[in-house]
């Protein structure tokens, strides 16, 4: 499918495939009423993105129990780069088992 700007829209399976293959993503959250963007390592567990961070980091303090955005992209596929953007709730898990959070 192509959107109104002429860009190809990826289906859900393609989005998760791109997410699973990306080494680094960017998480966006509010930090003291301003947008903050941090590069992070992450894992895909089913339909959940898992980011490990320290208990007292900016992300752990400001990005929990709020809406966050997450993005990965592939520019090495030029002239057809791909990008996936996700939005959802930031939650805290003390551990992640084999079945996910």
From TrEMBL:
Pfam family, one: Pyridox_ox_2
InterPro entries the UniProt entry points to: Pyridox_Oxase-rel, Split_barrel_FMN-bd
Highest rank taxon of the organism: Bacteria
Name of this protein: Pyridoxamine 5'-phosphate oxidase family protein
Lineage, highest ranks first: Bacteria, Bacillati, Actinomycetota, Actinomycetes, Pseudonocardiales
């Amino acid at each position: 499918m192509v959107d109104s700007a002429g860009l190809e829209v990826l289906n859900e399976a393609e989005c998760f495939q791109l997410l699973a293959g990306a080494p680094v993503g960017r998480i966006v959250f509010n930090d003291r009423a301003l947008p903050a963007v941090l590069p992070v390592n992450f894992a895909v567990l089913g339909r959940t993105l898992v980011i490990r961070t320290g208990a007292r980091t900016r992300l752990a303090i400001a990005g929990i129990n709020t809406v966050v955005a997450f993005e990965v992209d592939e520019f090495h596929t030029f002239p057809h780069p791909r990008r996936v953007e996700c939005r959802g709730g930031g939650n805290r898990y003390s551990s992640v088992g084999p079945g996910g959070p």
